[in-house]
Amino acid sequence: MKKQRIYYTILPFVTMVVALLITYWLNQVYADNFGNPGVDYSFIFQEFNDSIPFLDWTIYPYVSAYLFWPLTFFYIGYRSKRNIYTILLISLITFGICGLWYFFFQSDVQAWRDTSGLFVRPISELNFTERLVLTIYNSAGPRNALPSMHCVMCWIAICGVRLDKKMPLSAKLFIILLSVAIMISTQTTKQHYIIDTIVAIALCESVYWIFKKSKAVVALENFYSRINSKLGIDWDGII
After folding, report:
1. DSSP conformation class of 53
2. Which letter does DSSP use for residue 104 in this model?
3. Which of 38, 69, 124, 157 would be a feasible disulfide site paired with 108, CB 3.0-4.6 Å?
4. Peptide bond just before 168 cis, omega within 30 deg
């Protein structure tokens, strides 16, 4: 393993995390403190939403996303200098659109969470998995649901797989299958409606096709390469 190919991905990763915190967390703070309760979008594909069961054990693929995303980002960066900046550009544009949508058209899924039945039972009666679900409910809040940021991040990971034509098949399958499992878990943990997933995929896919060969990718690469070169952590991108 060549550490240089890991180190140069740190700044792009930090940039992505900061953008995520701004677009997601600040919108949560605004919604919670300035009276922006959001809209319940369950009426879109209502019958499908009503057919989704609550499966508490699917919280595990859901929370695995918090480790899966960084590892996938660094893996893509380890394999391709150009691809990591393509992914970064897609992330920044997608997060920006999501942030604006959350601000102006905030959503709320508390009624969806209530159907899990966890809120009407004493905490002492809940098992570890059910308590973990409640922990996620409390930490994530019921807003910023449309589009689903979990699904956005997973589809961006899938975009990274598609960019890397030489990625080992086993790695491709792992990333794609876990991404799909995480997206399914957003439904079965009652964290998102199906429209949240549909919009997330459509948004990412649109940005991917529009910007994957954009000159902005080259500009990002040049910008970060200059900084990384000064820090002594850049590499030529040749495997």
Report:
1. P
2. H
3. 38
4. no
